[in-house]
Design brief:
Layout lengths: L1 H18 L21 H6 L28 H14 L1 H10 L9 E6 L3 H12 L3 E6 L7 H9 L4 E2 L6 H12 E2 L2 E2 L2 E4 L3 H9 L1 H4 L4 E4 L2 H10 L14 E3 L5 H23 L7 E5 L3 H12 L3 E5 L3 H9 L3 E2 L2 H4 L5 E4 L9 H4 L7 E4 L18 E6 L2 E5 L5 E5 L5 H4 L5 H34 L16 E3 L2 H11 L12 H7 L15
Parallel strand pairs: 1-2, 1-6, 2-3, 6-7, 7-8, 8-17, 9-10, 9-12, 10-11, 12-13, 13-16
Antiparallel strand pairs: 4-5, 14-15, 15-16
Helix pairs in contact: 1-4, 3-5, 3-6, 4-5, 4-17, 4-18, 5-17, 7-8, 11-12, 11-17, 17-18
Cofactor: NAD(+)
Keywords: Cytoplasm, Hydrolase, NAD, One-carbon metabolism
GO biological process, one term: one-carbon metabolic process
Length: 518
C-alpha cells in the first residue's frame, strides 16, 4: 500500500502540474467563484453572445484541442475548485492512492456521461490515474461548471460539455464520446441512460462491442431492465453485463437521501431567497430523495405534505409524521412543490392552472419529465427570466409561477453538491467499472486459451456476469463505506472468532445477508 500511495501521489502531482502549465492569467480578468455552481460570471455577462462552443476549436497550453468547453481560459479557477473538493473526498483519494500502482483500468476506454462539477472532476481524474482512457460529456444541460470543464480540458482529458447546451448540443456532445477516429468506447458510465440509449439506437454495431455498463440513476436503470427480456428463453438486448448502482446499498442511502436532505434547502434558498418557515410544501414521492427533502423542509418549520402511489412508502410518510394527500386536493394551497418520483407528467397543465401566485415548482428527481414543462410553452403565457435557472411563468390572470431549472434537477443545476457524498458515489462507480473491466479481461483471456487449445482447454470459466443487470457486490459496498470512516474519526469494532461463528459471517465481512434492508 505504501508503494501504491507514493505512486498515486506522484501521478496526481503530475496531473496538477500539467493543468497549471499555462501562463499566468492577467490580473485584470476577474472571476466570481461564488457563482460557479450556476455558471461563471462571464456566462451571464455574455448574454448568449459568445459563439457556440461546439463550433469553436480551442487549444490548451500544450496544444491539445480534442475538447469543447465554454472557455479554456477559466481552467485555473477550475483547478482551484477541484483541489478544494479533493480535501473533502477522502474516500476517493484513498482509493486513488491504493490502486494507482496496479492500473486496474489499463486498456479500458470509458464513455463518461455524468454531471460535470468539481467533485466529479476528482473522480474523472482518478479513473485516468487508474489507467483508463476517457471521453466525457454531461448528463444535464445545466449542471456543468464551465471552469471545471476547462480544467479537465487543460489536463488533456477529452471533454465535451458546457452550461446551457441546447438539445442538439447535448446529443452532439454524447456522439463525440461514442466514436471518433482511433476511439470506440468499451465501457459506459452513465447517469440517466442517455448515452446508453443513444449508443444502442444510433451506433448498434459499437453497442454490441461493449464490455460493461454502469448506471447510477433510476430512469437509466429502468431502461437497462427493459433491455433485459424477462420472458423465458428470450434473448437479452444488452450486449454485456451492467451494474445497477441505484439499487445497491451505499449509493441510494448516501447520494440520494443525505444529498437531497441538504440539497433541497440550499437549492431553494440559492435561487429564490425564500423564507421556508411556515411555507406549505408538497413532496411528490417518498423514496430516498423524497424522505430527505421532506425531513429537511420539516426541520425548517415548513408544513410538509407528501403524495405517493406506493402504500408502503405512504405508510412510512405517515409514521414519520407527514400527511399523505392527493396533489389535486391540495394544489391551490401549496407554496413549494417538489417532484422526486422518477416518473413522468407528475405536474401537468391542470395543476399549473390551479396553483396560487408565487408557487415555487422544482424537481429533485433525475428525469426532467416529472414536470410537464411543454404545456407552459403556450403563447398566452409569458416567460420572464429572473435569474440564471429561475423563470417566472406569467398567466393571463396575472398569476406568477416560479419554475426552477426548467424542471430539471435543481440540486445539480442550481447549486454545488456535498463533496463527501459524491466521494461515496464515485468510489462505487470506480469499483463497478473495475469489476466489469477485470471480468471482461478474464473472460477474453479464457477464450484465447480455449481457442489456442483447439477447444480442449479443461479449465472452466466462472461466468459470474452474463448479459443482465446486477447489483454491486455487498463486499464492495462495505469497502466503500470503510474508505470514508477515517474522515469522521470512526473506528470499527471487530468481531471475535466466537461471535463471527455465532452470526455465521466472516470476520472480514460481508456482515449482512444480500436481502438485508439498511
Amino acid at each position: 500500500d505504501s508503494e501504491a500511495q507514493v505512486s498515486g501521489e506522484e501521478a496526481s502531482t503530475k496531473m496538477k502540474q500539467a493543468a497549471a502549465g499555462a501562463g499566468e492569467q492577467s490580473a485584470t480578468e476577474s472571476y466570481t467563484s461564488g457563482a460557479s455552481s450556476v455558471g461563471s460570471g462571464s456566462d451571464d455577462e455574455d448574454g448568449g453572445s459568445r459563439p457556440n462552443p461546439r463550433d469553436t476549436v480551442q487549444r490548451n497550453s500544450k496544444g491539445f484541442s480534442d475538447f469543447r468547453v465554454k472557455k479554456i481560459d477559466q481552467h485555473q479557477f477550475g483547478r482551484k475548485e477541484i483541489e478544494l473538493a479533493e480535501q473533502e473526498m477522502g474516500g476517493v483519494m484513498t482509493l486513488r492512492k491504493k490502486a494507482a500502482a496496479d492500473q486496474p483500468l489499463a486498456g479500458a476506454r470509458i464513455l463518461v456521461c455524468i454531471h460535470i462539477n468539481a467533485q466529479t472532476a476528482v473522480f474523472i481524474e482518478t479513473l485516468v490515474l487508474l489507467g483508463a482512457k476517457l471521453r466525457c460529456c454531461s448528463c444535464n444541460i445545466y449542471s456543468t461548471q464551465n471552469e471545471i470543464a476547462a480544467a479537465l480540458a487543460e489536463a488533456g482529458i477529452p471533454i465535451f460539455a458546457w452550461k446551457g447546451e441546447d438539445d442538439q448540443d447535448f446529443w452532439w456532445c454524447i456522439d463525440q464520446c461514442i466514436e471518433t477516429e482511433n476511439w470506440t468506447a468499451n465501457l459506459i458510465l452513465d447517469d440517466g441512460g442517455d448515452a446508453t440509449n443513444r449508443m444502442s439506437k444510433q451506433f448498434p454495431a459499437l453497442f454490441r462491442q461493449l464490455r460493461g455498463i454502469v448506471e447510477e440513476s433510476i430512469p437509466g436503470v429502468h431502461r437497462l431492465y427493459q433491455m433485459c427480456s424477462r420472458e423465458p428463453g428470450a434473448p437479452s438486448l444488452l450486449p454485456c453485463p451492467a451494474i445497477n448502482l441505484c439499487d445497491s446499498v451505499v449509493k441510494p442511502r448516501f447520494d440520494t437521501y443525505y444529498a437531497a436532505r441538504e440539497g433541497i434547502i440550499a437549492g431553494l434558498r440559492h435561487t429564490t431567497d425564500v423564507m421556508l418557515a411556515g411555507k406549505y410544501a408538497c413532496i411528490c414521492g417518498y423514496g430516498n430523495v423524497g424522505k430527505g427533502c421532506a425531513q429537511a423542509l420539516s426541520r425548517m418549520c415548513s408544513i410538509v405534505v407528501v403524495t405517493e402511489v406506493d402504500p408502503i412508502c405512504a405508510l412510512q410518510a405517515c409514521m414519520d409524521g407527514f400527511q399523505v394527500r392527493k396533489l389535486d386536493d391540495i394544489i391551490k394551497t401549496i407554496d413549494i412543490l417538489v417532484t422526486c418520483t422518477g416518473n413522468k407528467n407528475v405536474v401537468t397543465l391542470k395543476h399549473f392552472e390551479r396553483m396560487k401566485s408565487g408557487c415555487i415548482v422544482c424537481n429533485m428527481g433525475h428525469s426532467n419529465t416529472e414536470i410537464d414543462v411543454s404545456v407552459l410553452q403556450d403563447k398566452r403565457l409569458t416567460w420572464e427570466r429572473v435569474r440564471n435557472t429561475v423563470d417566472h411563468i406569467i398567466f393571463p390572470d396575472g398569476r406568477r409561477i416560479v419554475l426552477l431549472a426548467e424542471g430539471r434537477l435543481i440540486n445539480m443545476s442550481c447549486i454545488s453538491f456535498p463533496s463527501v457524498v459524491v466521494s461515496v458515489t464515485s468510489c462505487t462507480e470506480a469499483l463497478a467499472l473495475i469489476e466489469l473491466w477485470l471480468f471482461s479481461k478474464e473472460k477474453e483471456e479464457h477464450e484465447k486459451r480455449v481457442k489456442a487449445s483447439g477447444g480442449d482447454f479443461g479449465e472452466k470459466f466462472s461466468d459470474r456476469y452474463k448479459k443482465d443487470v446486477y447489483l454491486l457486490p455487498k463486499k464492495m459496498d462495505e469497502y466503500v463505506a470503510s474508505l470514508h470512516l477515517p474522515t469522521y474519526g470512526a473506528h470499527l469494532t471487530e468481531l471475535t472468532d466466537d461471535q463471527a461463528r455465532y452470526l455465521g459471517v466472516s470476520k472480514a465481512g460481508p456482515f449482512k445477508p444480500h436481502n438485508y434492508k439498511y
